Amino acid sequence: MKLLGMISTLDLRLEEATSHSWGHIEFITALTQDEKIYRDNRRTNRLRKAAKLRQEASFERVDFTAKRNITKAMVRDLMELRFIKDSRNVLLLGPTGVGKTFMACAIGDHACRNGYSCKFMGMNFLIESISLARVEGSYLKFRDRLIKIDLLVLDDLGIKPLPSQTIEDLYDILEERYQNKSTIITSQLPLSNWREVIDDDVAYEAIMDRLSHSALKLEISGDSYRKRQVKARQLSN
């Protein structure tokens, strides 16, 4: 059975059992818990590696002192991951540099810690990946993988207009995930401006319906973190 978790702590548990006069049940219980922790950690690490989150982020590192329109109550709600259980989407909106990607990665990291599969993709990378998959004849497999992911994170919608083929493919993916899986979209564009990058009226309406229906919409405000960091370095010099 490859009980590597038990094997790694066996000597320690034998010492504890002797020094604390454990019975058989206490000894086996401790080893069983060690095995569970070991397997949970391995699964979490595997899920994190597969997610390919853009940056290390966690809810514990959210800066509540900055005026970002992010409250502790909001973070507590996200930590419950109810939106994944209910197959709802999350839209993270706000200007460049306010922490949308960080928040998306924090949600993804927390999802991995709780046993959910996650995949992070920048929109430009998604466009390139779809094009490459079509050239290689593996698009259907690529699409099916994205459809099955518990939490799909698409970062930076709005950097540039989406190619017509990507619009069709994005709709197909969202249609299959609709009311079955959860998707996070980050964008510096307000929802009312998404038509600027989805230049197809029919597809636009369909995509917006799949994305925004019952979605959690978080509008993050404030100054750019990157600008603040530059100012901080200038002041320290």
Backbone structural class: alpha/beta
**Count of alpha/pi helices:** 10
- Helix content, binned percent: 55-70%
Output the CATH class name of the largest domain. Alpha Beta
Describe the structure.
The protein has 237 residues and is an alpha/beta fold. It has 2 domains: 4-50, no CATH class; 52-221, P-loop containing nucleotide triphosphate hydrolases (Rossmann fold, 3-Layer(aba) Sandwich), CATH 3.40.50.300. Helix content is 56%, strand content 11%. The protein is built from 10 helices and 5 strands; from the N terminus they run H-H-H-H-E-H-E-H-H-E-H-E-H-E-H. The chain has helices at 4-19, 24-51, 72-79, 82-85, 100-113, 123-136, 139-148, 164-177, 201-212, 225-236, and strands at 90-93, 118-122, 151-157, 182-187, 216-219. A 5-stranded parallel sheet has the order 2-3-4-1-5. Helix 6 (123-136) packs across helix 7. It starts with a helix and ends with a helix. The model is unreliable at 230-235 (pLDDT under 50).
SSE layout and pairings?
Blueprint: H1 4-19, H2 24-51, H3 72-79, H4 82-85, E1 90-93, H5 100-113, E2 118-122, H6 123-136, H7 139-148, E3 151-157, H8 164-177, E4 182-187, H9 201-212, E5 216-219, H10 225-236
Parallel strand pairs: 1-4, 1-5, 2-3, 3-4
